[in-house]
Amino acid sequence: MKWEKILVRYGELSTKGKNRKQFISHLRNNIRFSFVDLPNIKIQAERDRMFLTSSDDSEIHALIERLPKIFGIQSFSPVASCSKDLDDIQATALKIMDSLDSQDKTFRVTVKRTDKFFPLDTYELQSVVASNVLRQNPTLKVQMKKPEIDLRIEVLNDAVYMMAQVIPGAGGMPLGSNGRSLLMLSGGIDSPVAGYMLLKRGVRLDAIHFHSPPFTSERSKEKVMDLANQLSHFGATVRLHVIPFTDIQQSIQAQIPENVSMTTTRRLMMKISDLVRAEIGALGIVTGESLGQVASQTLESLTAINAVTSTPIFRPLISMDKLDIIDIAREIGTYETSILPYEDCCTIFTPSCPKTKPKLEKVEYYESFKDFDELITEAVQNREVLSFPMRKSNEFSSLL
């Protein structure tokens, strides 16, 4: 089936008031970014919908395949066009129905007639097209309320446009419409899901990862790089800040009692994250913590960790069940990478009996015997910054 254009519906954006244009502009820019490899795409943004067109049929099919990952789109429909000749209209309707799985489905025809000089009125055109479709598809059943297939026909002054598919989009808000935050990306199942959920609310992300060689391997780092790259597939560049954390972790092990060492580790990670956040101009920090899941995620532990910063900490998974988090990880494609058996710097130094209810004053007391500030500053300055999706290097660049 040759499609003329794609009709995009905004969904939640339609509830916006005077600032709606800003959200639509973000969506348009994100679509341009995501489809930069499709040079013929043209975007026409209107108040309540958007049209994507291309003279290249392969580009239209690429849009249909990849648009479900673009946040800010509630749903979209491929649109076919034809002349206002009745035979042409009926032939196009049959082609659309043939492109669908219509066996034993319920069906209706919906007509909108903008051209009032068209010889058939709305009901007459609806009846003619529906009768012809039913003759060619005897297993179809007419149902006027909530049919499985709704063949929509719009008669305009220049042509007739038809659609029958409503393909779900990713929903949420366009990326960039709600600022930037820094995701603490561990390499486990939870943090990529937390990042995805903030992306869905229109928040652009940088990510930060704590790497402790030789205790953590290069494969562990590559795993996190793969996760950052997977998050970039949702429509925006993701920068990954890799923090050298070995010296800090060894200092923690030497100075802090084992049962609260994990709390101090998290607190120093949060301090470092806050410094990087301020440097890149992000407004919040995102974590994959879920209340009560492990010892460092009890209410008492989170309170002790939060005490090192006044920056907003976003924990979108805080009340979620682990199995629900796994389901989302599978859905967004990060699960198989997250379960690869390469340990991060938290798991290798996990104490045998960590405090589940650490007292903030005691943690601060133990930390007071060691000045971590110099190590923190050095770690921030020596971080490695990677950008995803990674650009392919030009093997002939050295010759230019």
Describe the model.
It is built from 14 helices and 15 strands. With 400 residues, it is an alpha/beta fold. It is an enzyme of class 2 (transferase). InterPro entries: Rossmann-like_a/b/a_fold, ThiI_AANH, ThiI_fer, ThiI_N, THUMP_dom, THUMP_ThiI, tRNA_STrfase, tRNA_sulfurtransferase_ThiI.
**Structural class, from helix and strand content?**
alpha/beta
Number of strands: 15
Q: What gap, in angstroms, lies between the N and C termini?
A: 45 Å
Radius of gyration: 27 Å
Which residue ranges are poorly predicted, with pLDDT under 50 across at least 5 consecutive positions? 393-400
H/E element string?
A: EHEEHEHEHEEEEEHEHEHHEHEHHHHHE
Query: What kind of sheet is the major sheet?
Result: 9 strands, mixed
Q: What is the residue-averaged pLDDT?
A: 91
Helical stretch tally: 14
Query: What proportion of the residues form beta strands (DSSP E)?
Result: 15-25%
Query: Which bin fits the share of residues in helices?
Result: 25-40%
The gross shape turns out to be elongated
Quick rundown:
The chain is of the alpha/beta class.
Features:
400 residues; alpha/beta; nine-stranded mixed β-sheet; elongated
Layout of strands and helices, then pairs:
Layout: E1 5-9, H1 20-34, E2 42-45, E3 49-53, H2 57-66, E4 75-82, H3 86-98, E5 106-113, H4 122-136, E6 141-142, E7 149-155, E8 160-163, E9 167-168, E10 180-184, H5 190-200, E11 204-211, H6 218-232, E12 238-244, H7 246-255, H8 258-280, E13 284-286, H9 299-306, E14 313-314, H10 322-332, H11 335-338, H12 345-348, H13 360-367, H14 373-381, E15 384-388
Parallel strand pairs: 5-6, 5-7, 10-11, 10-13, 11-12, 13-14
Antiparallel strand pairs: 1-3, 1-4, 2-3, 4-8, 4-9, 7-8, 12-15
Helix pairs in contact: 3-4, 5-10, 7-8, 8-9, 8-14
